[in-house]
Write a structure and sequence with these properties.
The protein is an alpha/beta fold. The chain contains 5 helices and 9 strands. Strands 3-6-8-7-9 form a 5-stranded mixed sheet. A two-stranded antiparallel ribbon has the order 1-2. It has a two-stranded antiparallel sheet with strand order 4-5. A hairpin with a 2-residue loop joins strand 4 and strand 5. Helix 2 packs across helix 3. The longest helix has 18 residues. The two termini are 14 Å apart.
């Protein structure tokens, strides 16, 4: 895999390069029609000096400047810019998967429509073991949304129906997925890419 000019990488092997850099800076250095698929987990803009529960302890929700709460227009312009850049990078039949919560997902969906992507599915990830709601003033936040979209209405996206059915015990895969939240151990894992993936 070829390294981008003037951008230092965090990790590299012959098939994989990992950058720890501003996403727009990296994407703007990539050629058009590069990817068959993009998976994005953008900022949820939750760093507002609040608290949550992690491992039974009260912890700050602040993750960093990149996740700092923005006003509606700033947040939407940010989403519009990076999603527009993704469209340039996707191949003609490419798709994008974007995860989020109610804090950012409506802006993302609107940006996809503005940029004339075709939304294929709205997948709900129900977390089997969500952290409790410490304020006891709201329902427990136990879901995230994943929007799956193709580059345009003319794209012929790939969907392996038989494999999805196999993963779902011989039944059609639904758009509600039931999985536990990611463990601390998984978050700290080093990802070693496999050549055949």
């Amino acid at each position: 895999m070829e390294q981008l000019n003037n951008i230092s990488y965090f990790f590299q092997d012959e098939d994989f390069i990992l950058y720890n850099e501003d996403n727009l800076k990296v994407m703007k250095n990539m050629p058009d029609n590069t990817f068959d698929m993009i998976f994005a987990d953008p900022p949820y803009f939750l760093s507002n000096n609040g608290f949550t529960c992690s491992g039974g302890k009260m912890v700050s929700v602040n993750k960093g400047v990149w996740d700092k709460e923005k006003n509606v227009n700033e947040m939407h312009n940010y989403n519009l810019n990076w999603i527009k850049e993704c469209k340039r990078l996707l191949k003609k039949d490419g798709t994008i998967w974007i995860s989020g919560t109610f804090h950012n997902i409506f802006s993302i969906g609107y940006a996809l429509m503005q940029l004339e992507y075709k939304i294929l599915n709205n997948i709900i990830w129900e977390k089997k073991n969500p952290p409790p709601n410490l304020s006891c003033r709201y329902f427990t936040h136990s879901t995230e949304t994943i929007i799956w979209a193709s580059k345009s209405k003319n794209s012929k996206h790939f969907y392996n129906y038989e494999l999805m059915k196999e993963y779902n015990n011989g039944k059609q895969m639904k758009d509600v997925w039931h999985y536990p939240i990611i463990t601390k151990k998984e978050k700290n894992m080093v990802i070693i890419p496999h050549k055949n993936l």
